[in-house]
Amino acid sequence: MIPFNKPFIIGNELKYIEEAVKSGKISGDGIFTKKCNQFFEEKFGFQKVLLTTSCTDALEMAALLCNIKEGDEVIVPSYTFVSSANAFALRGAKIVFADSYPDNPNIDPKSIEKLITEKTKVIVPVHYAGVACDMEAIISIARKHNIFVVEDAAQAIDSYYTFSDGTEKALGSIGDFGTFSFHETKNIIAGEGGMLSINNPKYNERAEIIREKGTNRSAFFRGEVNKYGWVDLGSSFLPSEIISAFLYGQLEHLEEIQTKRISIWKKYITELKTLEEKGKISLPVIPEYATNNGHMFYIICKSYEERTALIKCMKEKDIHPVFHYLSLNKSEFFLNEEKEIDIPNADHFTDCLLRLPFYFELSVAEQDLVIAQLKEFYNA
Ligand SMILES: *Cc1c(COP(=O)(O)O)cnc(C)c1O
């Protein structure tokens, strides 16, 4: 059986968990959390990061940091995971859906511009498949209208954007805030886990407070205040040392993980090129300004019916590709309140995008089987 995803252990994950337990401190912000934070800040140039229990939590923190209030509008691509929208809806925001490009699931800046009103407070670019959105265009729209940019970089660790002046920046370090996931389906995993990057030091202190249940506990432990208490809104967003210890075990092998994943990605694209040339499927496009972090590999089928037939055919051979995102404009939650709207490119990806098995331990033989099965289906 070839699953869609498989969690893996690569180094000292279990040893570090044992060390954390034996150290006598397994709640948050101990040695391993600090090691992870330092790793991310040094490697990717983030001004400041805070580990969280999920990307969803990091998005909720970002919504609090942007002071989202009832009636504020937040522009989100319709083709995304629920959390990109839900985190802001929880604070009372009205979610406004932008469309993807026709040939790339990322948010199209031209679609954003039309949606801006006086109430727009945030734009949430989602770097789908770890491939950068056009951040220069998005940042320029945001600056013009004085609105926040929160990058949903859940899939985008170790991926970069190049500005027209040649400057390259890590995804998650460009907007006001960036949010990452270490869920078992992402490149670097901790079971469940996430991170908030804060790109303007003005928000450092408040972010710490929000993450520590609305208290100034972090400042207290640094000896900056002589008692701590309730000073702001907040929740419990910090992960235990057990999670950070596992994560650090993975981070020590970041390069090996990325090299392997990128080689899997390249093999898929090389082998499937002929199907694209014959006009049977479309393959992912990486724009000039973006890098590829080997997060996932997808194909675009011609129709919903064809995709359904392909999945059935693969499953008969015990290969398990998956489709995803029912675009949010078609979700039950949205349709409870609002009337149905079409977001054409997002709807197309909802119907036609298929993700192929992709995980660190995917063997050459397994990948060959997936490719052979796809070719058999399309050449039949
Ligand atoms: C995985 C994912 C999330 C959620 O991450 P969690 O860590 O599971 O909360 C959010 N947005 C996108 C685009 C994702 O792919």
TrEMBL record:
A single BP term in Gene Ontology: polysaccharide biosynthetic process
N6-(pyridoxal phosphate)lysine carried by residues: 186
Active site: 186
Molecular function terms, GO-annotated: dTDP-4-amino-4,6-dideoxygalactose transaminase activity; pyridoxal phosphate binding
CDD domains: AHBA_syn
NCBIfam families: ECA_wecE, PRK11706.1
Family affiliation: Belongs to the DegT/DnrJ/EryC1 family.
Stated name of the protein: dTDP-4-amino-4,6-dideoxygalactose transaminase
Source organism of this protein record: Kaistella carnis
